[in-house]
Structures are given as structure tokens and as C-alpha cells.
Design a protein that fits this description.
The structure holds 2 protein chains of 2 kinds. Helix content of chain A is 78%, strand content 1%. Chain A is an all-alpha fold. By secondary structure, chain B is of the alpha+beta class. The chains are: A mainly alpha, B alpha+beta.
């Protein structure tokens, strides 16, 4: 029996429930933003004089360079594999997604190891030509842009390919009926139609670029993320770190708003026909194969081979009793984070389904903003309030003559909170997509067949979103394993994971010794990529 | 005791009411239908009976027990109501058999299996139990939805536009099948539809809803031949109004002659009224002195539907057996054959 007008039906519950989860993202965000509006003069003077000019210039160059790079690579590869036919197309259409499995920092140190003066490539070249001084240096701005482009082009590739497959060919055929050549049709019709998808992919790639910490630190290329890390760990200046974080957040929020806008413009057309691909002829056919093969090789195949070679080289002396601990920490952290984040994602989605008011919907959108916020920023944003809370607790403990130095600070709670905030959106999306496929009438049918709301959740909704939950847990698991800055900055002292080990080895330039943990991470990373490939294959073929 | 009883039910969202003061009852085993255009509030009534919409006023009883009024409502799962949804709302992750057995959780597995078989046989899908909903055609999915709703033996079966996603032929066959199944199982049913043919084929009692109000609750025959309002007269079936003058307590006279009925008309002598003329009221008769000009004709297989122009310029419809094949522009003889005089004051 159900009483209307009771406290349980109060309309404020929706926003409040959503807010309880959103706090995980909103508190760090607001803490960081607050320091922008409360500038510390000393910190600012130092930053403005020594840090900001270089960091701002580097960030600008990086965003422009990677933006143009992923746009070119992503769109051209997507067009070739989605619309054209050439030798090897079938393989490349999924093979070109594989670089997603490789964290940017792994690709970065492998490329540096390969292409540096002492690396195998230049050594071979010196053997042939006597000198390799003409070889462009990999440790340069161009090198960073190249590596990040290779690491992040799959975002554009995936979305653009989706657009071309669902609407591109039909549009090209329609344009050809109206007298356009294929080339004209591509520029005048297919490309403009795919613009929201392409722009969405570029936005995601740029968010990853701004959030990247591992690769730029391998190149000693100073950006916001490395500056935040240095301010915290080298200068022990938390306020400088949070000032920098607040600037980065402002840039990133602009991207997040653009991304949200673009999502509304993407309407998925249901594909009801099998497209006839454009068969490339003669030279063009082989040029396409070579181009795809080249990108596949330098973004994935060659780095994988190099990793394996290094692992074989150092396996005997490097693999010792510390490795099971690294692995255990990584798996434990990823497992707990996956569990926590999946449950939070499910709750958030259930709240969104139950409370349809605009306030709740807005708060849910804010709660999933964490994917846009770089890990370094979240680490700072979580640490500051936890440190404050700790001080209160310690004061309180002193009242009871209980002497403690820290309670939450330096515990796994900080790390889990920051990781959850960062990856909540990653879990939320597949769960919410599954949840939305349950119609109101299906829920009503179960009610009229005698199930209470709780039993409907248990017997109908949970089984129906099971696939979404598993996907969410898997993606979060792997993302946490790959994650570097949050783990590095918030872990308890000496609590090392595989990613931390990679960072420590690469910061000393020992590429071969970073290979073993990297290989483990890449192999784990292949799992969700295989899932993604399966999904896109079943959707389009 | 009625299986379903609605007493002055008021429904609405926020401040505005969608359904006002609705009352009707269904005896056990009777099939009722709410007929109306989209947005008339008929689906809201169904959802309120199922327990998905709160009442703003009035009350609802099932089998003589009050289940909802303005202050409280029994949860949907405790009402023992079956519902067939417009989109069927089958559970895609379960087999057909598990869908049908979903409401039988508390039954023993032997009884449950037997009941599922019984239900599948009833709807003619005995060998589809192991299949999944997406492997079935629309008509088959509809039958599964019906079997699922009937399996727990509901007090009342509610059907929300159950045939609207099916093609015309299937719709006709299924509406007859469902009617027979309900009668066979003595299930009380309430159907909501915008399709009169469906309402006529299925229901013992039909209610026409306009703007949230029930304008008439009657048998299909009475609805067609004795419509209570001008709106129902035009909404249900074809027909035209011809101007007439009241010529006696029970009679009107108009262009085609004088018509009388047993009950008084309740309209003042000599006042102007409109008389409802159905296509089956105008019969073709070559020997008749009354002639009308064929303006349009629609071939309907067994019959032609002619639009005829009377000497006064007024138009009537006439349903004529199709061996009377007349060209447009031809003058044909007609005769009035009317059993039910329906007249409304001019307005």
C-alpha cells in the first residue's frame, strides 16, 4: 500500500540522491576551482615567472599538433576502411583499433627507445650511412606530437568510421545520382555529415592529450600535468599545484562542454542495407594498403615486438619476487575500483531512471564529468579536502587523548575516491545504455504480474543490464590498471603497482626494464578492445 | 458483484485533469472496450485500473473490493490484474516459456510447467516455448503477451491498443481469436482502442470517450443505431445529417418523407432538427419515384458505397450490393428503410 504525499515521495530526493554520488566528482572539482578564485600571491608569482610561459606554449603546441594529427589519421583511415575496398581492408578495419590497448606512455618509451641515438634504428642507419646525424631527433616537440597522435587517433577513427558506415555510403550514392564524382561527394556530403562524430573524436583525443602525464614526462616535455606533479612532489607546494590544476580544469571544461553539445548532434541512423564498397584501382589500391600497414606497424605491431624483445632480454634478471606484489596491487586496486565504480554507476543510472526531473538529470551529467578531468587534477582535488578532514579528525582524536598522525591521508581511500571520480562515466555509459533499453511497460508488466518494485529490480532490471555491468566492470578494471598519475600521486608510500613500476623505470631511462610491467598492462588492455571490436563488427556486418 | 467497477473516477497530471467523473462497470466474464481518439484519456484510465496512475477523485473496485481512491492505492502487484501492452513489453532475455511463467513465481515447478504448456496451447504457440521473443513475428509476440498476462488467472485482463502494431488482416483474425480465448476462460476483459471494428469484434460493452469524458456506455449495436450524442453518431460508423422539422410528438419530416419512432423526441413541435442517415438506411430501388444523382462511388467488393445528391442538393451515402453498377452522373431510384430514428436539435 502506498501513501501519496508522504516524505518518501518528496521531489527533492532525486537531486539529493544524485548529489550524493556526484559529490565524488564535484567536491574535487570545486576545491580546485576555488583555488583559482583565491590566488596565493607567492605561488602565482613563481608560476607566472618560471612555469606558465613554457607550459602554456607547450600545451598550445600539443593541442594543435595532436588535434591536426588525429584528425588527419583518424578520418583518412576511417574513410578507407569504411567506404573503400583494397587488399587487407578487413584486417585493418579492426587492427587499427588495437593501439587503444596500448597506454600512451608505453608507446612513448618504446618509440624513444627505438628511435633515440642509441636505439636500434639509428644504429642500423649508422651502419649503412656512416652517420645518423641527419635523423630527426625523437626527443622533440615533433616526437611528442607524433607519439600522442599515434596513441589517440583511434578515438577519431572509431567515431568517424561509425558515421561513414551508417550514413556515408548512402549519401555518396545519392550525391553521385546528382552528378558528383566520388571525390566531390566525399568533400561535399560525407565529410560534412560526419562532422559531429569527427569533432567528438577529436575532442576525446584532446581531453586525453591534456590529461596525459606519462608520455610527456618521458619526453621531459613540460605541460600542466607534469608541472602539477613537480609542484607537489619536488617543491612540496600544494597551493601552486592546485593553482595549476585550476587553470587546466578551465581549459578542460571548455572541451567537456563542446563534447556534451556534440553528443546531441549525433543521431544514429539505422543501417538497413549492406553497402557496396568503392573498389580502389591500381596504384591507389596498394597505396591504401601501405598507408594502413605503416600506421598499424608504428602504432602497434613494432612497439609490441620491441616490448617482447626487451622482456625476453631482461626476463631472467628483472623478474623477481617484487613482481607478484606489483601485479597483486594492480589487480587488487583495479578490482576494487571496478566493483565500486560499477555499483556507483548502477545506482546513478537507477536514480536517473527513477527521477526524471531536470535537476536530477543535470546533477547526473555533472557526476559523469570526471572523464574529462585529468588525473593529476583529481589527485590534488581529492587530497586537499581529505587532508582538511584528517586534521579535523586528528583534533577530535586528541580530545580523546588518542594520538594519531594521519587517518585517511595516505590510505587507499584517497586513491579509490580519485579513481572512482575519474572513471565513473566510463562505467555509467554502458550501464545506462542497457538500463534505457528496459521500457516503462516492461517494468509495468512485471508489476502487474505480481512483483514488488524491489523484486522488479532483482528479477528484471538486474538480469537485463547484466551485460552492461560486465562491460562497465571490465573497462574500469583495465583503465585503472593503465592509470598512472592518480596512482602515482595518491598511493600510500611504497604501495607500487605495475604502472608505478613503469614510471619509475622510464624516469631513469631504463626502457628494457619497463617492458615487463608494460606488456602485462597492454595484454590486459587488449580485453576491452576485443570487446569493442566484436561489438562494432556485430553492429556493422 | 461486478468484476470491475469505476465510480466517478478523476485522473490527471499536476493541476489539470485528463479524465473527469468516469463511471462504468463490467460483470464477470464481460468484455468492455473504451473507444476514442488519441489523447482522449482512455489509456490513462487503463493505467489507473492497473495501479500505475494515482486517482484525483472517485474510486475503483475489483471483485467488490475497493483498490484505489484519491488518498490511497493498492500496489499494482497486489491487484491480480493482467495487462497486455501496446508494445507487448516482453522480456527479451527470457524464452517464451519463461516469459509466460514470469508471473507464476510462487507456483510449484510442476504446476508452473503445466500452466505454461496450457497457456501456450491456448494461444496456439505450443512449440514456441524454447524460442526468444525476437525470433517471433509480431502476431506471435502478441499471443505470448496475452498468454503471459492470462497465466496467473487475473481478475481482469487489460489490453492497451493490443493490435495496433499488426497489419489489418492479422488484426481482424487476432481480435476474433482473443475474443474467443477470453470467453473460453471466462476472463473479464477491458480493451482500449481507437479502432471501431476492433471494438465491435471484441466487446460486449463499448464506451466512447471524448476529451476525458465517457459519452456513452452501451452495446456495439446500440452505439451504432442509437448514438447518445451527435459526436458519437459521427465518430461511430458512416452517415450524414439531413435537415428535418419535427412534425409530431414522435415524428420528423424531411426531404425523403416522414419518420416516426415509439419513444417521444423531447423536442418542441416545428423546431428544426438533424436526422442521422446511415448508408444502410438508403436502399437502391429502380421503381422508386425518389431519384438521386450518383456523385462518387467506392467499390468495396460485396457492395458499392455511393455518394448521392438529392434534388435539394443535400448529400447522402448509400450502401448498394455490387451487382448494381451505376456510373457517376447517373440518376438512380432510392428508398428510405430506417428502423432507428436518430435526431438531434440543430446546433
Amino acid at each position: 500500500m502506498h501513501q501519496r504525499g508522504s516524505i518518501w515521495n518528496w521531489r527533492g530526493w532525486g537531486p539529493l540522491r544524485a548529489l550524493a554520488i556526484a559529490a565524488l566528482t564535484l567536491v574535487p572539482l570545486l576545491v580546485v576551482l576555488a583555488s583559482f578564485f583565491d590566488p596565493q600571491v607567492d605561488a602565482w608569482e613563481h608560476l607566472a615567472a618560471y612555469v606558465l610561459p613554457g607550459v602554456l606554449w607547450n600545451t598550445l603546441v600539443l593541442v594543435l599538433g595532436v588535434g591536426i594529427g588525429v584528425l588527419f589519421l583518424g578520418v583518412s583511415l576511417a574513410w578507407l576502411t569504411a567506404v573503400c575496398n583494397f587488399p587487407g581492408r578487413k584486417f585493418f578495419s579492426w587492427g587499427l583499433m588495437l593501439p587503444l590497448a596500448m597506454p600512451a606512455y608505453v608507446l612513448a618509451f618504446v618509440q624513444v627507445g627505438l628511435l633515440d641515438f642509441t636505439g636500434p634504428v639509428q644504429t642500423v642507419l649508422r651502419g649503412w650511412f656512416g652517420s645518423s646525424a641527419w635523423f630527426p631527433p625523437i626527443r622533440s616537440t615533433g616526437g611528442v606530437v607524433l607519439v600522442l597522435t599515434l596513441a589517440f587517433y583511434p578515438y577519431v577513427y572509431l567515431l568517424a568510421r561509425n558515421a561513414f558506415i551508417t550514413q556515408g555510403l548512402r549519401a555518396v550514392e545519392a550525391a553521385q545520382m546528382l552528378g558528383y564524382t566520388r571525390f566531390q561527394a566525399f568533400w561535399k556530403v560525407a565529410l560534412p555529415m560526419a562532422r559531429p562524430w569527427i569533432a567528438g573524436g577529436v575532442t576525446l583525443a584532446l581531453m586525453e592529450t591534456l590529461a596525459d602525464f606519462g608520455s610527456v614526462s618521458i619526453f621531459s616535455f613540460d605541460t600542466f600535468t607534469t608541472a602539477i606533479y613537480k609542484a607537489w612532489f619536488s617543491l612540496f607546494n600544494l597551493s601552486a599545484a592546485s593553482q595549476l590544476a585550476s587553470l587546466l580544469v578551465l581549459v578542460v571544461l571548455v572541451l567537456a562542454v563542446i563534447d556534451q553539445r556534440l553528443r546531441h548532434n549525433r543521431r544514429y541512423a539505422v543501417k538497413s542495407f549492406t553497402p557496396v564498397r568503392i573498389a580502389l584501382q591500381g596504384g591507389a589500391k596498394w597505396a591504401a594498403s601501405v598507408f594502413c600497414a605503416l600506421i598499424f606497424a608504428i602504432a602497434f605491431a613494432v612497439p609490441m615486438v620491441q616490448l617482447v624483445v626487451w622482456v625476453v632480454d631482461v626476463w631472467k634478471e628483472d623478474f623477481d619476487s617484487r613482481y607478484p606484489v606489483f601485479l597483486l596491487h594492480s589487480v587488487w586496486l583495479a578490482g576494487v575500483a571496478a566493483l565500486v565504480v560499477t555499483v556507483l554507476g548502477l545506482l546513478l543510472s537507477a536514480i536517473r531512471q527513477h527521477h526524471k526531473d531536470n535537476t536530477t538529470q543535470l546533477i547526473v551529467r555533472l557526476a559523469t564529468l570526471g572523464y574529462a578531468i585529468p588525473g593529476t587534477v583529481l589527485a590534488v582535488g581529492v587530497f586537499i579536502p581529505v587532508a582538511w578532514l584528517d586534521n579535523q579528525l586528528i583534533t577530535l582524536a586528541a580530545w580523546f587523548h588518542w594520538d594519531v598522525q594521519q587517518i585517511l591521508k595516505g590510505s587507499l581511500v584517497v586513491m579509490l575516491a580519485a579513481l572512482s571520480a575519474r572513471f565513473l562515466a566510463v562505467a555509467f555509459q554502458p550501464i545506462d545504455a542497457a538500463m534505457q533499453r528496459i521500457t516503462r511497460n516492461q517494468g509495468n508488466a512485471a508489476r502487474s504480474l505480481g512483483l514488488s518494485p524491489k523484486k522488479v529490480l532483482l528479477h528484471l532490471q538486474l538480469p537485463m543490464v547484466r551485460g552492461g555491468l560486465l562491460t562497465a566492470a571490465l573497462i574500469v578494471f583495465v583503465d585503472v590498471m593503465k592509470e598512472m598519475p592518480i596512482t602515482l600521486m595518491t598511493r600510500p608510500f611504497g604501495w607500487d603497482t605495475l604502472a608505478v613500476r613503469v614510471f619509475e623505470m622510464t624516469s631513469e631511462g631504463m626502457w628494457d626494464r619497463a617492458a615487463l610491467p608494460s606488456l602485462a598492462i597492454v595484454l590486459a588492455g587488449l580485453l576491452p578492445v576485443i570487446l569493442l571490436i566484436k561489438k562494432s563488427e556485430s553492429g556493422f556486418h | 458483484m461486478d468484476a470491475l467497477h469505476l465510480d466517478a473516477v478523476v485522473l490527471g497530471y499536476g493541476g489539470k485533469s485528463v479524465v473527469s467523473e468516469l463511471s462504468f462497470a463490467l460483470a464477470p466474464g464481460e468484455i468492455g472496450c473504451l473507444l476514442g481518439g488519441s489523447g482522449c484519456g482512455k489509456t490513462t484510465v487503463l493505467r489507473a485500473i492497473a495501479g500505475f496512475e494515482p486517482l484525483q477523485g472517485g474510486r475503483i473496485a475489483l471483485n467488490g473490493h475497493w483498490v484505489a481512491d484519491a488518498n490511497w492505492q493498492l500496489a499494482p502487484e497486489r491487484r491480480q490484474i493482467g495487462m497486455v501492452f501496446q508494445d507487448y513489453a516482453l522480456f527479451p532475455h527470457m524464452t517464451v516459456a519463461n516469459n509466460v511463467g514470469f508471473g507464476l513465481r510462487e507456483w510449484s515447478s510442476i504446476d508452473k510447467g503445466r500452466r505454461i504448456d496450457e497457456m501456450l496451447e491456448l494461444v496456439g504457440l505450443s512449440d514456441a516455448g524454447k524460442r526468444y521473443p525476437h525470433q517471433l513475428s509480431g502476431g506471435q509476440q502478441q499471443r505470448v503477451a496475452l498468454a503471459r498476462a492470462l497465466a496467473p488467472g487475473p481478475t481482469v485482463l487489460l489490453m492497451d491498443e493490443p493490435f495496433s502494431n499488426l497489419d489489418v488482416e492479422l488484426r481482424e483474425r487476432l481480435s476474433i481469436d482473443v475474443h474467443n480465448i477470453l470467453k473460453e476462460t471466462s476472463t473479464t476483459g477491458l480493451l482500449v482502442t481507437h479502432n471501431q471494428q476492433e471494438a465491435f469484434a471484441m466487446a460486449d460493452r463499448v464506451g466512447v470517450m471524448v476529451d476525458g469524458q465517457l459519452q456513452q456506455w452501451a452495446s456495439p449495436y446500440a452505439l451504432y443505431h442509437e448514438p447518445a450524442t451527435r459526436h458519437i453518431a459521427t465518430f461511430v460508423g458512416d452517415g450524414v445529417f439531413l435537415p428535418a422539422r419535427v412534425s409530431g410528438q414522435n415524428c420528423v419530416s424531411f426531404e425523403l418523407g416522414e419518420l416516426c419512432r415509439i419513444q417521444p423526441l423531447d423536442v418542441a413541435m416545428d423546431s428544426d432538427v438533424d436526422v442521422l442517415i446511415r448508408p444502410d438506411d438508403i436502399q437502391h430501388d429502380d421503381s422508386s419515384p425518389v431519384r438521386a444523382k450518383v456523385l462518387e462511388r467506392v467499390f468495396r467488393g460485396a457492395a458499392f458505397l455511393y455518394t448521392l445528391e438529392l434534388p435539394s442538393g443535400d448529400r447522402v451515402l448509400s450502401l448498394v450490393p455490387s451487382h448494381h453498377n451505376h456510373a457517376v452522373g447517373e440518376m438512380i431510384g432510392i428508398q428510405l428503410e430506417i428502423d432507428h430514428l436518430v435526431a438531434f436539435p440543430k446546433g
